[in-house]
Amino acid sequence: MTFVLLLSVFPQQHSAAMSVMQQDAAAVSSDTIPAQEETGGVQSDGNRYTGVFARIFDTFEKSPTLVLILYIVIIYSIITLIVLTVFILLNRSRMQKEQELRQELNEQYQQLLIDYLFDEEQRKEIFRKILRIASSNFRRQILINQIIELSVNMQGKVREDLRNLYLDVGLKKDSLRKAHSKKWHENVKGFRELAYMNIRSANDRIIECLNSHNQILRMEAQIALVRLSEDNPYTFLSYLEKPLAKWEQITIHELLTQHNLNVPDFNEWFDSENLSVVKFSLQMVAWFHQKEAVDGVIRLLNHADEEVRIYAIRTCGKLGEKKVLPHLQEMYDQASYNIRMELLKAFAQVPDENYLEFLNGVLDKEDDVQLQILATKAMENLDEPGISRLIKLMKKKSEYKNYQIIIRHVLDGRIY
Amino acid sequence: MGTFWTILGEVVNNSVFILTVIIFSTYLSLMIFSAVSLRKYLRKNSYVDYNSIITSPIAPTLSVIAPAYNESATIVDNIRTLLSLYYNNFEIVVVNDGSTDDSMEKIIAAYELEKVNYYFDYRLPCERIRGVYKSRNRSFKKLVVVDKRNGGKADALNAGLNVIKNDLVVSIDADSIMEPDALLKLVKPFLEEKEKKVIGAGGVIRIANSCEISGGHIKKIHLPEKWLPRAQVMEYTRAFLLGRMAWSELDGLLLISGALGMFNREIVIQAGGYSTNTVGEDMELVVRIRRYMAEKKQPYRVEYIPDPLCWTEVPSDLKSLARQRSRWTRGTMETLFKHRKLFFHPKYGKLGLLGYPYWLFFEWLAPIVEFLGIVWFTVLAITGRLNLPFFLLLLGFVYFFAVSLSIWSVLFEEITFHKYEKRRDVIKLMITAFLEPFLYHPLTMLMNIKGNIDKLFRKTTWGKQERQGFSGNSKPKKGTKANNETLEKKEEIAGDH
């Protein structure tokens, strides 16, 4: 609202000049103005205005260009106001009508589809009806949506019938057109439809989009390929150049777990140049408990990238394989603060009393509270030997460390 | 003498005209950026299934920090509402900031709390933490209550940051009503992080006055019945849908409302946490974490969600509004002064070259220039030096342009989230846009000036006891006395500019 602020600044400056102008104007003889009009209303800045315009500009006694600009902005603003007001009010009605029509068509098409699927005698007649009503893009889109919605919840022959109907009505063309459109949001719609209807004719186009700059398009291409691939749905991870965002990882993981897809051996991608793929693979190895990948995980403990190392340590912890522990211990002294944190968490997840002295040493040596707590937690997870040691430590008086507070914190089961 | 006045008048005239053109062009550009950004966001999110986040074991865990001060009347319900937010892995950390009422006793009784043996790691300085409480009842395992000595909102947030363990932290004004899916939407920018680290995300704050609220949730949305809150609806719509959306697109966002924001915890801690020396700790934090990242030369982003994620009640009387605006102005001044090094400093990129100068000139100095202009105009009018026709022309120019921007923002609201279902409400909002420049804007300008004066001559902070926290998820029905009392408190904390 700084505009309105300035309106008051303007007049003051103009008026300052104006007062002088008014005085000057008084001094000038009255026949000066007709003289200007005779010469076409020539203004001081060289602009020429005649007739009505000249009179308007004279009224303001300002630069005609300035006045003209102000008039243009005012007229533009007023027109905008009128157009927007009308549009806003009409848009309300349009949206409401569209919503009602959509609702009505959804119900109508759903009923028709159910009749088509389950009333064999009337099927031809219903098919003709469906053909008739699928007359506009809007209606065809609603029909596609309905077919997809139904097919998601159906299995076997019914699903196959729906797919055949989709093909017979010619809706495939619509989906392909969208998949090849220049608009990314149309592509997404097309990919989804083709994937749900299991149509592979646009796979090349989908593969093209795997390295698109548009993250949504890229992700939808990945999902579509996973759905459309029969053998190894995750091969796209091998040639993915762009980073795999957490959001994409969540979506892929969801596909894996909720759509009964074959789970690949994720250690296949441990050597990928795309670090986000390596990190995702490590997470999946942990999630699907792929213990056969443990050697690969140990190898990644020495990866050049710290984040990859962190993910590898986490995976070691989750796999619960004791063979990782010597490697983790070996890393500790040279590790950064963040890595140390992760190492201690991993020790807590893979309890082994052979490492009691190591953990006790960490507790004694470290000054950082978080590291002390994690070391204590790892000791607690060793059960009897660890807890006995902690109780002994609680009694120990130390000038430098209040073991009692740290250990009481860790032993309080309500905190974690 | 005459020549002097002529020259002076023309110089000032041209300068101000150029300034006006710059301001108008800036607003026009922001509108265009906002439109682009909104379109992109809506298209992108029409394909999003947020349920994936709820069910995913690899989704990040969150900590929600809710500072509370003397919220005895509503604290129990507020916590219940927070516990019912849609998200899987999250904890609610309620920080009782030395309440002098029976807030703590009520929470302990309602949620079966007991003190745990917590070892505090004061990574961020804060007032002494007296204890951490957890529930004996497993149904409330997500709840952590921190009891500490009073230290103000920023101090309470720092205490919360010391206690939490999760990587992402959500700070809320507990008076606000969060949309149930607010966490899902807010976390998404962090999940989409690529080359640039996402260090913070904020969302749209909407006005809850006159809305029907039940059980801590908005049941029916209405435009405020009173004129003052209604004008603020217009102001918020414009600020959020035009301003912030555009700044997010430009990566120059300097403010995430204190009512609701999500941050990367480690970055916040490394940057020093919330500042307790300012009344605008929300803006100060965003500026500081941005500055921290720029100085570390780490690529980063601050994201903004145009979805309405949070509802808040705004002042409905002039006195409360004046206090709120004075505080906002003081907060802005404090942040701008503290981070003056950023001013046109190329090292800070868009933060120093775009965001900071915009706030300095457009948010802080513009009302002062406006006020001085009015004074000068009045003097000139009295002394008979006013060019009335030209003044009226300029008035029309500024007025119509300003109103058209407001109507654009109404359009953006209509084609995006259209929260006001009744056509009557939209018409009322449009009428408000026409009246606001004359009836509301001058008031906020004067309140802004008062904030400047307060900062220069009197108030330096809002004092420990002035900070408010929880008060309103299960708000009393509109128009009741209790509601007015809530608003009295609310005006001090509605942390948005």
Low-confidence parts of chain B, pLDDT < 50 over ≥5 residues? Answer: 462-497
Major β-sheet profile of chain B: 10 strands, mixed
CATH class of chain B: Alpha Beta
Over the alpha carbons, how many angstroms does the gyration radius of chain B reach?
23 Å
Tally the structural domains of chain B.
1
How widely separated are the two ends of chain B?
45 Å
Examine the coordinates and then state which fold CATH places here, giving the name of the CATH topology of chain B.
Answer: Spore Coat Polysaccharide Biosynthesis Protein SpsA, Chain A
- Sheet-strand content of chain B, in percent, reads 15-25%
Structural class of chain B: alpha/beta
Contiguous low-pLDDT stretches of chain A (5 residues minimum) are: 1-47
Proportion of residues in extended strands of chain A: under 5%
Helical stretch tally of chain B: 15
Helix and strand sequence of chain A:
HHHHHHHHHHHHHHHHHHHHH
Mean pLDDT of chain A: 82
Amount of helix of chain A: 55-70%
What does this 3D model show about the protein?
The complex is a heterodimer of chains A (416) and B (497). Chain A has 416 residues and is mainly α. Chain A has a domain at 38-169. Chain A is 70% helix and 0% strand. In chain A, α15 (306-319) packs parallel to α17 (337-349). Chain A is extended and about 95 Å long. Chain A starts with a helix and ends in a 5-residue tail after the last helix. By secondary structure, chain B is an alpha/beta fold. Chain B is 52% helix and 15% strand. Chain B contains 15 helices and 12 strands. In chain B, the strands form 2 sheets. A 10-stranded mixed sheet of chain B has the order 3-4-5-2-1-6-11-8-12-7, sandwiched between helices. In chain B, strands 9-10 form a two-stranded antiparallel ribbon. In chain B, β4 (129-135) and β5 (143-148) form a beta hairpin. In chain B, α1 packs across α7 (227-249), α1 (2-45) packs parallel to α12 and α7 (227-249) packs across α12. The longest helix of chain B is centred in the first third of the chain and has 44 residues, at 2-45. The radius of gyration of chain B is 23 Å and the shape is globular. The two termini of chain B are 45 Å apart. Chains A and B meet through α1, α4, α9, α11 and α12 of A and α1, α2, α6, α11 and α12 of B.
